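debug: dumping io for the single-chain case to check the tokenizer round-trip. Nothing else runs in this session.
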Amino acid sequence: MPTGDDGERVERGDRTMRHFAVHHDGVTIQVSHGGRGRPLVLCPGLSSTQADLHELTELLRRDHDVVAFDLRGHGLASAADRYSFEAFLSDLVAVMAELGRLGQTETPVLVGYSLGADLAVHYASERPDTVAELVLIDGANPVPEPFITEADLAEFRAMWEEQAARQEAERAKGTARQVLLSAQDILDLNLELDVLRSGILDQYRKIDRPISMIMSTSIAGESTEGRAPRHNELWRAGIERLVRERPHVSTSWLDADHRLVFTHAPEIAQIIRSAHHPAGRPTS
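debug: decoded output
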């Protein structure tokens, strides 16, 4: 079982921020906890940290008691010897197991961004009684065919190598925005996600809690050339496929690309605020 260490408390008006660490599987996960209202757990995505999600987190803390954390190899979390979907899922499981010690008596809303959305669906499919509802931001999409084809590999590898190069300064300083994964780690995880998303409808079928999707209209940008049109079409086709099978899933589309959590945080917070469902109310 993971253990938590009490950390510093930081007063912010009438709210108290608490920081602690969860130790499991040889890694240390840094967690922050604060706000007021319904409990909410915010799971970041691949290459994003709780520092990156600061604006959204602060907006959500106006109406929710928010738990935010860093996945292994991200931000203030420690490095690991493996970066697989199952390893990241174990990080979420470890954080969720700590909620009881925070004094939360109500089951939380589980919000996931990108990879974090996929983690949330897989978590809830195995432990549906531990979440009140799901909010999935631009992830967990049952796309009808893989995003990354053989023809895309070189372009994606170059994109993530450039991203890894930009991260060198953050890693050198050890900042809260650092990402320790290599370009190959990120490529491997995206290829793994393609496989998992091909069967994710099976996970949705196990969940009887309300689900809200917040999706970008142009996940790959607005270019009419290259890979963008195909990926944007796949993204919408995946959600259409989901809603056909699970018609009670609520979907909101934002005119944005995959960076929507950074560019449209107020809109996302408002959607989450207005999507309140009584705890435990099923979707069907």
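debug: round-trip ok. Residues 186 and 245 are 30 Å apart (CA to CA).
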